[in-house]
Amino acid sequence: MIDEMTSALTRIRIVLVETTHPGNIGAVARAMKTMGLSRLDLVAPKPPIDAETLARASGADDVLEHAGRHATLPEALVNCRLVIGASARLRTIDWPLLEPPEAAQRLLAEAAHGEVALVFGRESSGLSNVELARCQALVHIPTNPEFSSLNLAAAVQVLAYELRRAARAAHGEQLLDPPRDVATADEMESFHAHLAQALRVIQFGDPAQSHKLMRRLRRLFHRASPDRTEINILRGILTAAQRHHLPSASASDTTVLP
User: What is residue 188's predicted lDDT score, i.e. its pLDDT?
Assistant: First the structure.
């Protein structure tokens, strides 16, 4: 499944049109690689790849090395079965507009069958209407309307994350914690008995109301669902507290329960 996911992601082109800052190209490469994307295509970039580009790439040099370079946008879109353009502002033209998760799902669905592209425009003005007309749909990141300026690399990172999230969901990949060795019911009962005993030894709470206190403490520790190591740590703390109060405690109260 991971190989299938990787294969789909490698068919997604990130196309940058007339990028004006060399650092942005490097930052885009880094944003792509962190999410498993590797196909970068540059359309008439203004600056050459330089030391700043490599520095901002932070190890994604291979993405830069294999980046395609094109004189025009149509050249960068050859053989693409789906093209979605990123628009920083809502356009007045009547064009399908997608939220980032929906755009990611559409790109991945088509990437299962061939090449697709996600196109980003110039830092200052975005994509022209002529360039947008080459896209089947637009994707808009719903930023704060009072401060909607989003750096090019940040925009790529948002959409690259959505692509990876959709790919993981499609292939059943989940972030799972390793199985926990949780304390068993009998171990929890021994702990609660030890806790009640320790509370008596340190004279915490009203003995007449202790049953209410113990119910609340039971609920607390059941919610926490401690593992065996954590229970052992807690019981060690209880034992230390009992020993500290040993001079004022009776022999029956200071017996440590198993």
Answer: 95
